[in-house]
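Hi,

I'm pasting everything inline rather than attaching a file, because the server keeps stripping attachments. The sequence lines come first, and each chain or strand is labelled.
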Amino acid sequence: MIASDNPYAVARRDVKYAVLGAGGFVGAALVEHLYRAGAQAVPLIRRIGTGGALLARFGLPQRLANVLDQDSLKAAFAGTEVVFHCVTGDRAAMVQGLENSLAAAQAAGVRRFVYLSSAVVYGFRPKEAVDEASRFDPPSWSEYAKNKVAAEKIIGKWTGGAETVVLRPSIIYGPRSKDWSEAPARQIVAGTAYLVGQGRGHMNEIHIAHLLDAMLLAAHHPAAANQIYVLQDGFGRTWQDYYRSLCELLGIEFNTVAAFSWQDATRNSSKLARYGQWAKDAPRVLRSAMWHDPLKAWLKQAPGFESLRRFASSRPAPAVSNGSAPQLPAISPDLGVALLHTYPQPLVDAKIRSQLGFTPRLSLAQTIEGLGRWYRFMGLAR
Amino acid sequence: MTPIRVAVLGSGAVTNVLYRLVLREVRDEIELVGVADLNRQSADQLLKEFPSVKFFTDYHSMLEQLRPDAVIVAMPHFLHKPASVDALRMGIHVFCEKPMAISSEECDQIEAVARETGGVFCVNLLRRWFPSVQEIKRITDARALGALTSFEATEGAPYGWPAMSFSFFDRKISGGGVLMDSGVHTLDLLQWWLGPIEVVEFFDDAAASGVECDCIAELQAVGARGSLRMSRSVELPNVYRLQFERGWIEWDHDDGTRFRFSSTGQTRDGQTMDGQTTVEAEVKCEARWAGGGRFTFALAEQLRAFARACRGESAAGLVLAGEARKSVDIITNCYSRRKELVIAE
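And the predicted assembly:
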């Protein structure tokens, strides 16, 4: 991968970095980046799982650390100069966990604390162009957005010794991005992909490699202390552009992607909004857990296994059939996705570019090429 | 018939998830007498279900005191060889978890001791006991579809094994990553069905001291090229496809009863040759298990066969040292040719 020209975006060998949430997509990628640069990384994970398998490639000692357990954090942060907080989860993990992490960082004498927030604090489709000074407007139906706002308020009130930096990316894509690169590709292959409003909304995406550069800038740049940054690649892509490039990589006609009007999408998504993300995601998570037969055998002993199994086998009720391709599975548009697909303007990312010198180092073509390599490994593309 | 007396070495995830269930089923042939592990807590469930079983933190003491007829070795991979050798030298038969050991050299040692002592040594390669897998074996042995022309296998899913420690992620302990852990099954089946497998190239994503999460092996079997892709990071198609001169076989990884095949002149791209009729079908074999699943069935069948072998009866169906080592030999060969795999950059 091409290295960044910005000296502040380069991992330093004389700095010890702790990465909270190292088992997640961003955290694992960051540890890899630090490792490859020869820096000292302390990967902290909540449990042994997929992220642990990724981290195990480097033979680094992995540590279990729970953000709800301040003592485990203090021990983990000892001797570290920078903490990257890439934790997600429920409200306790995202909010109380952040408070604990800040306190532990303070106790350990951490110099800088980089918090990975999200542009979702402005809502899924703000009415006006947003920058760092724009007001929070999380939708009432998104626990994730509300938790991110609550977490940012904690950072906003923070008066401890460690400098804080908040990053607000929106769509983080690239190899290993389950939500924004794997899921759309699998949906395109399965014939269940869709775009709302023709996908003409601004995607406001950031490639994982660029996000990692921004995180290192946040860790090192003197001007970043106690600042907040909105960031994106700046390729000016719409969702339609993105889906077209994915279709091309996968060798599938773009016209197989279902098209929903905003009205159709929202009419059928009100139920999702009511029940929240959990009801939609839980069966998928359970199905994934039951993939392995010995694990299933183990689960089978648990009381209520049968009802769990039935729930895991359930699919969202068909909401809108695809009129142009009636043979395809019915698709239930997601309200959050519908809002994103119709995002009316680019995020204003001038501050990070001017203040920290942030510049995406990969070209659009390189980001697509990288996705193609990953899709070929997965067997999605030839 | 008196059940053979068996002790379990290791009470980690596989013991709790699989053996604990199966040992209940085979009580008529196997009596569990002891379990050894450094972590008492990990054996709690087993001890609750088998109250007469004695617990030890040192397997040497257990073997000395209990003198079981046989042991199940379900310890971290790097201990498979020393534990198996220790048991065999004490005249104790061994049923070992896969992989047989973490290198060809270690397999040599186990094989030599098994030969020298005359003890039964076999490895849990349970997929061989699936009816679907056995039916494919019959087809390939009979060369019913002609010569093999190519093959491809993929196995992958986000890592979800309920591991109780980081031992799977430590090269010194596990001997490797996804290839050593899951690939041992895949390679065992491929070589069982197709014959000796040579490694052409191997790519993985591990640093020198780490274990691979994803890998690709370019292979060759009886002159036909093939590939294996494995992942702990992402779901792969999880299909084995064997292409022959006059048809193909597709097996969805871990399907105990079904596979698909096509016979007569169909080529890979679906064109028919010489105007012959092409038959495509899905074969569904009899499950042979009423409750539980294919894994518990396959393990129970093996343990019963193992008990018979320990009593001096036939060892038919068991994967003995000479056969079990073949997949480890391929893995050893892969690791010795490692090149960097870059798939996510």
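Chain B is about 35% helix and 25% strand.

If the labels don't parse on your end, tell me and I'll reformat.
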